[in-house]
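Table S2 (text version). Query chain:
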Amino acid sequence: MRVLFLLVSLLFSLYANESNYSDENSYSDDSSQDIVENVLYVNYQDVPTRIFQGQIFPLTLKILSTVDGYTNLIYEFGDSVGTKLLNTTPISVKKNSYIYSTFYFLSTSNDLKTPDITISLNYNNIRTAHHKTIDGLTLNVTKLNPNSDFSNILAKKFTLESYKSTSYDNKNNIVVFAADAIESNLNTFHLKNRDNQGIETLNNDYLNAHLSYYVVMDKREKELNFSYFNTEYQKYETIYIPIIVNDDSVSTQSSIKPVDKGVNIFKIGAAIFVITLSFLLFIKYRKYIYIFIIIVAGAYIAYSYIPIKYICLKENSNIYLLPMKNSTIFDTTDVEKYLEVQGEIKEYTKVKLEENKIGWIDNENICVP
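Corresponding structure-token output:
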């Protein structure tokens, strides 16, 4: 009986030792898993404290990997609220042991939560490992309450590059301007209380966008003003464009037709009288100011008799609002016709249409003699 008891005790002891060994191995596996999960350390860097609706804003991740040998990082995104991700591949900079990966978002509503982001190590596009997820952020969003001159643009920086004003018709001028913007959605540009306006060209890169825009304005207006919201300084800034109408140089490559200006006989007669009087006064007083007056009056008479220049435009030719590619087409010729030349810029010619409206044609559409 004692021998049987000792045998049972020995078997129990062996079973307990095996169980402890199995538990120790299980603990070791859990510890190894913890080490794998902590290969990647991810935090947000410089989180914006205030976002405006319609603003483009950056969000930077600070990433540390405790292992080497991987090719690059892979990013996966969860659902978001009130925001649009603009770049799935971040702009990344490595400093010391850290990688700073920046993503850009567009705020689309007052309720905003950025997506959860999962980062993984990629090994030669064969496998990924060591996944780490960082939760998205809920950010405060402010809706603007702008003035009537607001152009719907929020930008870190908005710069007017160039502008030009020309006559559009008897009552209006057309103003064309080009602008650059940083961290901005220029596709939303619009001026209130303007009936005839639009985008001519647009490169809507959210980091460095470029826009060319036109607006038709009353000839009595001397300045075009509009504002945008500067997101860096969080204030409205106003852009001023003076309306200075310049005549374009007239092309010398156009065919010439007879005079058709309806010369003002009274003005010509007055100029002849001024020339005669100035000549008599010069003979009497010998002052060269009278010679200058004679030259000016004579130049006016000569200009009045310069024939109007015309070009022949092919049938089905487009007439553009502005002298640039992809400009708005506001008329097309149904037959071959002659139009009065007003000026020329590079490969475009400025022509006068019915009702004294001005348009631009591509020189490729000029009739070949």
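Notes on Table S2: The helical segments are 2-37, 265-285, 289-304. The chain is about 20% helix and 45% strand.
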